[in-house]
Sequence to fold (498 residues):
Amino acid sequence: MKFGPLVFLAAFLGLSASWYGLVLTPQVQLGRATQETNSVVKTELYPVGRPGLAREGLEVYRANGCAYCHSQQVEQKGTLIDVVLTEVGTNSMNVANALNEAHVGDGKFNGPSVGAGLPKPVLKGATIENASVLANVLKKAGATAELHLVPTGSDIERGWGMRRSVAQDFISDATVMPGSLRVGPDLANVGARLPDLNWQLVHLFNPAAVTKGSPMPPYRFLFERRKIGKQPSPDALKLMGEFAPAAGYEIVPKPEAKALAAYLISLRSDVPLYEAPLTPPPAPAAATNAPAK
Amino acid sequence: MNSPTNQPASNAPDSSAKAPALPIWLIIVFFMLLYWGAVYFDEHGGWFDAQIYSPYVSAEQLKTYQVGGGPNVFEQGRQVYGRTCFTCHGAAGMGQPGTFPPLAGSDWVNEEQPGRMIRLVLQGFSGPGLKINGQPFNTGGAMVPWNSLSDDEIAAVITFVRGNKEWGNKAGPVTPAQVAAIRAKVKSHSQPFSPTELEAISPAD
Fold:
């Protein structure tokens, strides 16, 4: 073979270049990633580790091949900005004029009414450049405005997440389950979307009982149908109508089902991060009134 | 009888062995594509930065999207309040009559300059003679210093208390830089302030 060393060298260079680009560089960049600060609430770290039961649930998820039909990665096409007027300040005439000169909204702001119903968005779906310009104009007029980041994209419109998935979302798992097919919905944020444990368990036992026409196969082998003893089990599924077991029987989740449901509920990626910024929706009043202890 | 067709093949130059010249237009197209690819990568690739994900294309651009500052300091302050201040001053900032002073509507909170309030949080207070809105307030205890909190946390919680419209407070926000400046000034003051000492200090200082 006349060009043996040359062929060897070329193959070696080709392979090592791809190893460098696909394995070594990502490992150096992300391999030792640790918790990151929530970009809005700077005292919170993300991600919080999964509870022990949820870690077991990851293995159940893996063993049952959930990743063949469910992805865990949300796509994002862009980020739009809403300019929200929060305070008008002392000179509402100035603010109204500034808004009218900026040609936002219907262009009919007037001094006395511009401060009504605050906070209110005065410009929606703008680019960051236009939004910053308007915010500066408002600031000069003595008003206060907030810029709200609104990630966009078909996944986000479906309610599958609030922002795109990034590497940080996966660092607490030893085996990541990003998936690639979407026979079923994306699960990156399912814990925020469907946090009800009984819903998750019933859905695993019989998907059709909660989602009509669901193509998902039932995972009945994760449950036990048994005679009710002296006391009904507190874990027994709350099944309605035609899906309810015969009288005197109950459906009880096995430990695998409990772990899998705990894992699903622990899946949430709605925390604003530096690399995936977003403005979280206002917290519900009930949650803010109860201080964290 | 030497016709060219009868010549042995080995003597004839093998025309097919010579590589045909690449047409010049193909080379030009190739380099144009290469150039376009390089420009596209430069504009969209993020230069292999681990923090750049689409739809963002560069570190500078991503930085312009970090606008979550203003309102969220307030929410951060709400959290700090829940961890530290809530126990005494209450969820509604009303305190407890005779024991813990109210924050809602208090003149100490609503001063235009936050100097005294930052000192209060950093160094605490003890001693008699506290007045709230001109009325004497008999406090049974003292306030512990919270200088273990970071500048960011203190700025956030003071911003939350001062700007809390639900409590009827309307004072402006406080920056971590203001807290840091006062933290440096009160370093020499190891004891909690007494109310008279605080009143002697100019709020703007």
